[in-house]
Amino acid sequence: MSHKILLPVLVILMFSVLISRAQKSRHPVLKDGSSYIKLLSTNQWTTIKNGQNDSGYTYTIIWKGSKPPETFFWRPKAGGWMTCAVTRVHANKDHKDIFDQQYDKEEIDFAQIHKGDTLDVMPMRGGRDIMPKLIPASMTNRLFFMVKGNSNWWYAGGAVKKKK
Taking the model in full, what pTM does it have? Predict the structure, then answer.
């Protein structure tokens, strides 16, 4: 009699463990984004506006993913969480001498990003988005992004090193 009860209980217990593991895998995780991004350069810029210095970074990347990104954020060393503006970069075919602009930038929506696109990603001040709890405070000077149809967070880059 006890074998008739024990077998269904074990089967139910086994299925509940499998279901709970499948549900845990749906929670977003933080992963290395090198399969989606090739980082070409990190440029630091400084401007003077109304007598005040303003500085920041621009990342130039090649998008390697077959699906477009949904969002980009940057986390500076000083803390915070900055939304990024993204532009597509094209070579200027009319470039004739050193005074002509070598590249043109095109403002685009994330849905317009395709595999192989060269992009400039620039952090913007004043973002009010909340940083996900799964990103540790020690991960600074990096790009974070999400890919359409995927709940995971991806990161690229690391501490920005100044050239000697």
Answer: 0.71
